[in-house]
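We store amino acids, tokens; thus:
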Amino acid sequence: MPVLVYRDLAELPRQPHALTIGNFDGVHRGHQHLFGRLRARAAERAVRSLVLTFDPLPAEVLRPQEAPPRLCTLDERLALIGACQIDSVLVLRFDQEFARQAPEEFIEQLVHYAAPVELVIGDDFRFGHGRSGSVTTLRELGSQYGFDVTVVPRVDLEAQPISSTRIRQLVSAGSIEVAAELLGRPYALTGDVVEGHRRGQLLGYPTANLRLIDRLAVPADGIYVVQVSIDGSSELLPGMAYIGTRPVFQDQMRAIEIHLLDVTLDLYRRRLTVLFVRRLRGDMWFPSVDALIEQMQADERATREALAQLREDWPPPLTWAILNLAEGAVSADG
């Protein structure tokens, strides 16, 4: 059943909840573990599970010039949370007024509208103006208002914590296979196909130029093995992705270009979700167009070899949540 999405505290049904609070950008394996604990606690207490998240993300309001790029769009975040079998999501608008709330004020509103019987939070949880509220603050308020607090330790992978920050660093470095391990799914970019220079067609490798639909983290420049969904289709098409500034042609603007293997389609104005499988190499300068074409042919051979090595059950099940967005979340107001 799709997750119910609310956009205001006052929209919530007046019934008890077990809930968690956070940005949950990327909905990585640490978040998934937290949601699992939330589901279990909600089931034990016979209440509905509720995830409270924010849009815009706090850093985008408080430090807009320094805010990191997102690991997924809001729609993808909601669909991924729903795929974790959460009953409801509350998306609160984060603005300067919201940021000025004292921890006590925020929890008072939460108690009034969400009737929490338990909050399940990460061990680094902070809340309220200037992040002044801590786990200790929350426990004190829980004693006052009658809700329990369960603290879930951060999940590690190879002795390093799984975090959205770490995943962004991996994506930025082109380490998309390690990023996929932390996410529990391949890293993905979603965007609309726009008009390009049509150089790829002249080179024998027609490409679709992607304009991202959000400020998403873009992998390091280079050539990538990818699988592509068109307009949310469950059919994944094999391809190569190029990210860079096209040094052979001395372009200035960074581009994201997708070439599909073994199929010729008119992709203009279509929406693509690109699943990153592997990085083949970094961006390179070539002394001639012929040298570039020779390398592209080698890249194609390497891409086909990499795709042939994928397991039959690839991609992991959580991936389908971001491809089938229409099924992943339902607005509570219909």
